[in-house]
Amino acid sequence: MREINPAETARAYAFEMWMKAPMPMVTFFKRLDVTRLRRYGRRHGLKFNMLICWCIGRAASQVKEFYMLPVDGRLLSYDSLAVNTIVSNSQGEVSSCDVPFSDNLSVFNEQYLRLTEEVATTCVNHDETECMVIGTSALAHYDIDGAVGMYSGVFNNPFLIWGRYRRSWFRTSLMVSMQFHHTQMDGAHAADFLARLQHEIDSL
Asked: Can you tell me whether residue 192 is helix, strand or coil?
């Protein structure tokens, strides 16, 4: 992680326009076809939430804007990504767990299972401070059409939220919302990421 000069990046104009905006966040909604992901998980004994987190990491790793993040009036550049997941802990509450992204599914799955179990047991958040973290929240027990994240002014990280997937005949769909800071990326970058996410799911 290192600070970079916004004027020397493609985000110079966006930094000037949106860094101090009172509400710089943008939210997109997209219905994903997760039929293949669900079948792959069942066939190989892998968790649905882990698989979609891995696909998110895969898609984000191909969009260079995900490696930058506005923090406290500065623009930071990162060399690696992590995907955050919210974990139900042993006290009946929730904790936060950052899972370092690996392009290798087996490695990511091992880290996901180990870290989420550790967080669930200890009730202590696991933070990857040297990674650009993509936030997620899976409300898998609830049938919702979408959600808009709260902008606190503290965390500017991109954030994805989804609820229960929906089955219809032979297809399974999942409505996902994505919130991002306009300084970090434009709408075209976010739309490209969501298209890549669908491609990663279809490529499993």
From this structure: helix
* Nearest C-alpha neighbor of 110 from the set 203, 38, 47, 57: 47
Distance from the Cα of residue 204 to its chain's centroid: 18
**What's this model's pTM, rounded to 2 decimal places?**
0.96
Unique residue bearing structure tokens 């974990």: 87
At CA 136, angle to CA 201 and CA 82, rounded to 5? 80
Is residue 178 within 8 A of residue 194, CB to CB? The reply is yes
Instruction: Pick the closest to residue 136 from 90, 185, 81, 183 (CA basis).
Output: 81
Tokens 């929730």 locate to 94
- CA 175/CA 57 separation, integer angstroms: 18
Q: 69 with 63: CB under 8 angstroms? A: no
Q: Are 37 and 197 in contact (CB under 8 A)?
A: no
Residue-wise pLDDT for 4-44, tens only, equals: 999 999 999 999 999 999 999 999 999 999 999 999 999 99
| Mean pLDDT for the stretch of residues 61-87 | 97
pLDDT at 144 over 80: yes
Q: Give the separation between CA 121 and CA 147, rounded to whole angstroms.
A: 28
pLDDT score for 149:
78
Q: Return the closest-CA partner of residue 201 out of 63, 28, 52, 101.
A: 52
Quick check: 177 and 146 in contact, CB under 8 A?
Answer: yes
The rounded distance, in Å, linking the Cα atoms of 178 and 29 is: 6
